[in-house]
Amino acid sequence: FGLLGLLWFCGIVHGTEVSGLAVNTLVLPECMSNADCGELLACIDLRCQDPCPGPCQGNATCKIHNHLPYCACDPGFSGNPFIGCQRAQASQRGVLLTGSIPSGRKVYKVERFFKVNYFAALAYCTTQGGRLASIESNDENKLIKEAINNSGIRNEQFWTSGTNLPQGQWIWMSSGEPLLPDYSDWWPGQPSNPAVERCLEFWEKDLNGYMWNDKQCMEQIYPICEYFEYDL
């Protein structure tokens, strides 16, 4: 294997020449994983780099949480940052997007064959032509529970688009709407750790039915996507 082989294995050897004498300079990798970098950087090609730009569209900014990029609407704008955010106007329900609220009948699909973290769930549902589930009424909450029950999965967890990133206010990331003050379905005592568990899941314990719970965004669980059906 030899010394040069060891140097190649541990890092990158660059050949230089000083006064006619060949000199090998060892350049070690800056990182081997994201854990070797600051929270706002990611290990890319063995270097700590800015993982943005992400797939953010108009009036949205790529932000970074725990090494991973995600999109968020700029202040004063709301909507789906993967499609494009629009300027919001005040309404009695909080934030209403002028001309950008999808019409049609909302349906939910439980993706029950794989588990991903919150940010990957956001991206996955978008690539499927939908978005990660948002809940803006008791009826929609019942529809999601029905979809989960129809999946046959018990005592598990499922992502919604609820999050208190980046500023601590709970919103539905997919729609930009805040959680309504007059409706929620949190388990008793939840959210219990919103400074660390910053994403909203459906969680069932002891076969007692599914309710909302705050969860660390990097945990891998099943996503629930929402779609809009139209009458032709």
Automatic annotation (TrEMBL):
This is C-type lectin domain-containing protein. Residues 49-86 form the EGF-like domain. Residues 103-226 form the C-type lectin domain. The keyword Hydrolase does not apply. The keyword Disulfide bond applies. SMART domains: CLECT. Keywords: Disulfide bond, EGF-like domain, Signal. It comes from Cuerna arida. Disulfide bonds join 52-62. Residues 1-15 form the signal peptide.
